[in-house]
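Explain my protein.
***
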Amino acid sequence: MKRGVNIFILTLLVLGSLQAQFAEGQPVLRGAIGPAFSYLVSLELDETAFAALGTFAADFDLNDKDNAGINSSSMLITGFEGFGEITPHWTIGMYAGQGEYFSSANDAANVDYMVNFVLSQVGVTAEYNTHSRSRLKLLAGSLFGIGQVSLVASSSPANEKWTDIVAGTNPRQAFELSAWTPVIQPYLGVRFDISRSMGFKTIAGWNEQVAAAGSWKLYHNKVISDSKEVALRALFFRFQLYVIL
């Protein structure tokens, strides 16, 4: 009997302690949602995998460091993020974003060239934060998800007419390549509640994203078995302005 009373008292003490901890750190922020802007500061197209773009159009030579249109050392990704607190220290959320390189050119024969390189990402985020009594919170987390990379290119005579395009009577070249990739983004950052209704989050981390060799498809359908591995690793910074729900 005495042993049972002791166990009962110990259980009450443990439960009371847990309740006190959660009550003391009861989160003010239940959930938030808002636009997010990522800046990949060291992302460049693989010069080996995409070297033949220079044959497609001289202006798309990736070895030409002056070509900032499709081979700049940075990319802006715009997106949306939402997250919610599940404990005083842990939050989970969802993120989706897309960025691109775009370049166009026109040669002496009056032929228009276009290249568009698009990077998309979507995933689940998990974060641990300090949940300090101040509005400022330090956090560490990671995104786990999937992404898609695509390359669309075309060349066509200038001033084409609708009938010629639909009938295919004018000479043209065009292709679209794409591949699915896993995405992992570990990061550190801060979150600051400006008021009870809004705040911002800023983080810095590493984007680990690789399109495997042989995973590329032509027009999302035909597998290109000899396609190259393309690494899309980059250091990134992300800023989000959120509305507290």
